[in-house]
Structure formats: C-alpha cells, structure tokens
Write a structure and sequence with these properties.
446 residues, single chain, 0% strand, mainly alpha, 81% helix
C-alpha cells in the first residue's frame, strides 16, 4: 500500500464511502425488518441485542491494542519478523476466541434473567441461545476484520466490508421473512455473524499468507512474546471496556434518569446524527493507524508529527463543515423527524459533533503512541477520570445548576470526556520529548 499523504487521504475517502454504503444498506435492512416484525417485536429483539452488547463490553479486553503493539514491535522487523508477527496474530485469535466463548456464556445466563423483565413479548429459550451464540461469533469475527488493516489494500478492505453488509442484510431479511418473530430475528443475527466472520477470517488468512504469515499454524523460530506485556494490556483493556460501556452505552440511561422521555429522545436522536461523522473517523483509523505505528517502529518521530498535524487539520475541516451543515439542515429536518424543539436538537447535535474533532484530530494519533510505548494504563486512568468526573458529574451538575430540564447539559458532559481524557495524554507526549519527539515547531511542512 502506498504511504504518501495523498494516497492515505484517498484511501480514507474510499473507506469512508464504503462506510456510508454499508450504513445505507443497514438502514434499508432495518426498515424492511421493522416493517415485517412491527414495532413491538422489533423492540423486544432490540432489548435482547442490548443485553448482549452489555455482556460484550464487560468481557472486552481490547485485544486489538495488544496485537497492534506486538505486530509493530521492533522484533517484528528482524530476521524472524514474520514469525513474530504471526505469533502476535495467533495470540489475538486465541484471546478473541476465549472472549467470544465468555461473551456467549454471560449472554446465555443474563438473557433469560433480564429480558423477561424488560419486555412483555413472549420469548423462548431458543432465542436466547441463538443471540448469545451470535454475539460470541460476531466478537471473534470483529478481530479478523480489524487486523486486515495491517496488510490489506483499502480497495479490498472496502469490498470485503460492503460484502459483509450485504451478507448481514440478506441473512436478516431472509430469516425474518421466513419467520416473522423474535426467533426469526435472532436466527438472522446468528446467520449474519457466522457468514461475516467466515468471510473476514478467510480473507485475513489469504492476505497474511502473502506476507509469509500462517495465521493458524505455528511457524518455526518465532520469538516468544513477553507475558508481562500481555497481562498489562489485557488488564488495562478490560477496564477501558467498562469505560466504553459507561461512555457510549449507558449514557442514554443517565439522561433518562434526570430527563423526561421527550428530552431523552432528543438526546438519542442528536447522538445518532452526530455519530454519522464517525464513519469518517473509523476509515481514518484503518488507514492511518498502521502508518503511524510503522513510523514509531522506525523511530521517525518527525514524520509522525507531520501526519498528526495532517489529521488535526482534516478533523477541523470536517467538524466545521458538519456544524455548518447541521445549522443549515436541522431546522428543516427536525419537523420531518417529529421534533418540535428545533433549537434543542440543533444545539445538542452540534455539541456532540464537536467530539469528532477530538476523536479524529487528537485521539487518532495520540492513542497509537501510547499503545506503542505500552502506556495503556496511563490512558485508562485518565479515561476513568473523564467518564466519572466529566460525563457523569458535569452533565448532572449543569442540569441541576441551570434547572431548565434540557438534555443539552448531558451533551456537554458527553463532550467533556474527550478533552479530559486526551489533553493529559497530549501534554505527556510534550513532556516526554526524550521518548517521543513531538515538538510542533519542528514539524516539517507536508
């Protein structure tokens, strides 16, 4: 893959287009499934998915951070580099497989206990088993999807991604059409997860084989991996899974505790609109993260800083364009979406959209540096401070201080997570110049 700035940007644009195409396929599939099931059954199925998602966040140890660190370790570039990278990938497969089994087990226990209390729809044990298995397989499949960025070309990644979306749509629509019930929905999830995992695993095996790496076969003379490094990453990653659960999954529950249904609905809608920006952020990560880790491996901190400044500039432009678009369009779209308080929706969406600037402009290059230097524990501490001291303290405090009953203050709390968790990391990189040579005045012009 070409690593020039122009090619990195064009690759990110291509993958963003693929994300948008997948989003459109997903929306169409969701509308078809909703039409066939009806709101009641669709809502009951959503409850099952939400319970499974909680189980996944509880188990997730961010194994991809560990594998990224090992894959771009200095030993990965030596004589036995392919063997070391293969060991890192196989370690990731084993951990992901164990996590998948644990997710399925926890979901299988939690679903029959929690689901009947959250929905009035009659549910069967077979649905619990199907969705628990689907959650586990989907978790394992996501690992194969992630690691493709290390070796695959963006056009092929985009093709696999769109094909995965089509598999999901075909499985869901087909199974629900055959059985218009929660059971049909959960069967569709299992068929979708299995098909997508198989596709991405097969492609990962193929693409790494071309680099001399056997994904499922131990290679001779492969250097051993330090167990202490593994434990540090997994323990920090597990704590970050809880942070993610609070930040991205339980935030709507937080709003609902303080606000009424209307304000909670405005918050959820604003989150959904703002999250559309992350189609671009995710594409940037797939393209830029491997390049940033390569530069750290080569100790080329000057070029790393050049890419960091490029990411910051792109994030600024996209964020400003998004805000202008929201100011222009939301006053017209809000009535079509059934929202009467246009001002509240607009301000909430703009506030949440600013989080994209921090995620794409700062986190995209700060996070790989801390992963490479094995400082994930430091990131974890500040993430915990940000989610508890910022999102879960600032939002309610502003809500009570202003006293207008608006969910906007929880949007401010949500946004506070990013500067509170990222600015300390950025300042640490500035302080530790002997380790990471980031000095803005020395950045070469791209």
């Amino acid at each position: 893959m070409s690593r020039t700035h122009a090619n990195l940007k064009s690759s990110a644009t291509l993958l963003t287009g693929a994300n948008v195409a997948c989003a459109v396929i997903g929306v169409l599939q969701g509308l078809l499934v909703l039409r066939m099931l009806g709101p009641e059954l669709f809502g009951a199925a959503a409850v099952l998915v939400a319970i499974g998602a909680v189980a996944q966040n509880l188990v997730d140890v961010r194994v991809t951070d560990l594998v990224s660190r090992l894959y771009y370790d200095e030993r990965a570039g030596g004589v036995n580099g392919a063997g070391y990278r293969g060991s890192a990938l196989r370690l990731g497969v084993r951990i992901s497989a164990g996590g998948a089994a644990l997710i399925a087990l926890i979901s299988g226990v939690a679903l029959p206990l929690a689901a009947p209390a959250l929905t009035g729809v009659e549910l069967f044990a077979s649905s619990f088993l199907l969705i628990a298995t689907a959650q586990g397989i989907a978790y394992l499949g996501s690992f194969f999807t992630f690691v493709q960025r290390y070796a695959a070309s963006p056009p092929r990644m985009a093709a696999v991604q769109v094909t995965s979306a089509l598999i999901n749509a075909a499985a869901m629509v087909g199974c629900v059409a055959a059985s218009r019930s929660v059971g049909g929905y959960t069967l569709g999830l299992l068929a979708s997860a299995t098909g997508i995992a198989a596709l991405n695993a097969a492609y990962a095996v193929t693409v790494f084989r071309k680099d001399g790496i056997q994904l499922f076969r131990t290679q001779p003379a492969a250097p051993s991996i330090d167990r202490a490094t593994i434990l540090r990453f997994l323990s920090a990653g597990n704590l970050l899974g809880y942070v993610k659960l609070l930040h991205r999954s339980a935030d709507v529950i937080l709003v609902s505790v303080f606000c009424g249904d209307r304000e909670t609905g405005i918050y959820k809608l604003a989150r959904s609109i703002a999250d559309a920006l992350f189609a671009f952020s995710e594409a940037m990560g797939r393209v830029y993260q491997p390049r940033l880790l390569e530069l750290l491996q080569a100790r080329d901190h000057v070029q790393y800083a050049v890419l960091a400044r490029s990411l910051l500039a792109m994030a600024t432009v996209v964020t400003l364009a998004a805000i202008l678009g929201e100011l222009a369009l939301l006053p017209y779209l809000a009535p079509m979406l059934g929202v009467t308080d246009v001002r509240a929706l607009t301000l909430s969406t703009i506030t949440l959209s600013v989080s994209f600037f921090f995620a794409a402009g700062l986190q995209s290059w700060i996070w790989p540096a801390f992963v490479f230097f094995e400082r994930l524990g430091y990131c974890t501490v500040w993430s915990i401070v940000a989610v508890l001291g910022g999102q879960y303290l600032l939002g309610p405090a502003l809500f009570h201080a202003v006293g207008d009953g608006s969910s906007l203050w929880f949007c401010v709390g949500y946004l506070s997570f990013y500067p509170l968790s990222l600015v300390p990391l950025w300042r640490a990189l500035q302080r530790e110049r002997s380790t990471f040579a980031w000095r803005a005045q020395e950045v070469a012009t791209p």
